Amino acid sequence: QVTELVLDNCRSSNGEIEGLNDSFKELQFLSMANVELTSLAKLPTLSKLRKLELSDNVISGGLEVLAERCPNLTYLNLSGNKIKDLGTVEALQNLKNLKSLDLFNCEITNLEDYRDSIFELLQQITYLDGFDQEDNEAPDSEDDDDEGDEDDDDDENEAGPPGEYEEEDDEDDGASDLGEGEEEEEVGLSYLMKEEIQDEEDDDDYVEGGDEEEEGK
Predict the structure, then answer these.
(1) d(CA 150, CA 144)
(2) N- to C-terminal Cα distance for the chain?
(3) Residue 63 within any structural domain of the chain
(4) Residue 172 pLDDT more than 70?
(5) What gap in Å lies between CA 45 and CA 73, rounded to an integer?
(6) What's the structural domain count of the chain?
């Protein structure tokens, strides 16, 4: 059931991946930064994996394993590894869904026309080291979406209470108005009864008469 797993700084004893197997079939995000990996040979089959973080390891080759075991990768971070030439990266051509690749601090970045060569070699990718071919920075789409959702929730929460309070206020106003009216009516009737003013022709006369006398008082 695990969909995200972070194993950063969990040092490998022999440069191989340890403790992972095919039972992690729901895994979508895996991070193994600074684990001293030298090989990906023991990477299990993770068909749902979308993002793989392998920065700051000692990987120098064997990248063809990624296409075999994680065919649906969209993001791959290999920064800080021992990748030196285009031939090593060529193995990523079979990752058809790969959109973003990071190779920061790898020796390959020192090659002449490094960026153009990688974009030509891996035509499926949109972003290399965080920028596209026109040097536009890659958006943090997931973060933006999360923040947007949170903002929307906040707006809804903020908008809700005032409306409720207004309704309650209206109800209170209505209740208070009614209470005052009843009180005035009670005062008027008691005043009329006290003065023994009885007019049986029209009930409205009682109220009107009471109001006029009350105003006079």
Answers:
(1) 10
(2) 81
(3) yes
(4) no
(5) 12
(6) 1
Task: List Cα–Cα distances, 187 to 60, 70, 151, in angstroms.
Answer: 96, 85, 54
The residue range of the domain holding 134 is: 1-141
Does the pLDDT of residue 181 top 50, yes or no?
no
Phi, psi of 30 (to 5 degrees): -135, 130
Instruction: Give exposure, 65-93, as e/b (b: 16+ Cβ within 10 Å).
Output: ebbebbbebbbbbbbbbebbeeebbebbe
Give 115-140 pLDDT, tens digit per residue: 999 999 999 999 999 999 999 998 87
Q: For the whole prediction, is pTM greater than 0.90?
A: no
* 103, 78 contact by CB (below 8 A): yes
Any domain includes 34: yes
pLDDT of amino acid 193 = 54
DSSP for residue 94: G
Structure tokens at 132: 């596209």
For residue 4, which phi and psi values (nearest 5 degrees)?
Answer: -130, 135
Q: What is the CATH number of the domain that holds 79?
A: 3.80.10.10
